[in-house]
Amino acid sequence: MKKRKLNQRLVFMLCAFITTLLLSESSFAQNAALRKISGSVVDAKTAQGISTATILVKGSTRGSATDDKGNFSIEVADGNVLQISHLGFTAKEVTITSATNNIKIELDQSQNNMDEVVVVGYGSQKKKVVTGAVSSVKGGALESNHTISTLDALQGQAPGVYVSSTSGQPGDAPKIVIRGKGTNGDANPLYVVDGMPTTDISYLNPADIESMDILKDAASSAIYGTQAANGVVLVTTKRGKAGKKSLTFDAFYGWQNPARKLGLLNAKEYAIIMNEAAINSGRGPYFFYSQKQIDTMGAGTDWQKEATVKNAATQNYNLTYSGGNDQSVFSTALSYQKQQGVIGLPGKSFYERIGFRINSEHKVYKDIIKVGENLTYTHSNQNGIGTGNIYGNSMRAILNASPVFPVYNADGTYGRSWQASEANPIAVMDVSYNNQTV
Question: Which pTM value belongs to this model?
Answer without folding.
Answer: 0.61
